[in-house]
Amino acid sequence: MQRLNRMEQQLPKKIGEPKILIPTRYNKGAEEQLFRNPKTGKTEPYLFFTAEKVSVIVFALTEKNEVIAIDQYRHAADEIIRELPGGTPKSKNQSPETAIQEELLEETGYKVGTMELVCEGMIFEPSTIKATYNIYVARNCKKTAEPNPEANEYITAVYTIPLQDWITKELPRLKDSKSIVATTLALMHLEKPLFDRRSLPQESVE
Q1: Cα–Cα distance for residue pair 166/179, rounded to 1 Å
Q2: pLDDT per position as a tens digit, 62-97
């Protein structure tokens, strides 16, 4: 890949420190940062949504190879969204791995069997959101309790969906982008095909 050095001089330059507009609550905040536009020479303000802690999301499978999913009301969408379980560490000292185990148990009642990191530092939306998340795979998860979500969580249903049904039926209908990304990368990590050729329409032979 050829890189043009002269293009580097055309990048915006950060000016000063960010101004906090909304203090962090539930790991969400907002700030304003000034940048100098190299093309016009003008200083321009940019609004960013922020997070203090890295979020986590888990592609969790039961012993029967079923995907554990939830329906959860999301305020910005103002609707119930189907997604994979996840959340944020309870404190800065809590590890993402411990957070995943706690979140899965709280949101679904399932206990992690084995767990592997798939990818870290994924960016929610790089132009306006200064927040990242890590993706994990959990296998051999067992139901050990009833869901007990936090006071600010509104989970309306928990599902265990056969893996192939999740891929062919649920994945195309998902609205939550991080669950789509987590599913795709988790399947690559597990070396599972994204599509089972047997589920695809067969061409007619004349």
Answers
A1: 11
A2: 999 999 999 999 999 999 999 999 999 988 889 999
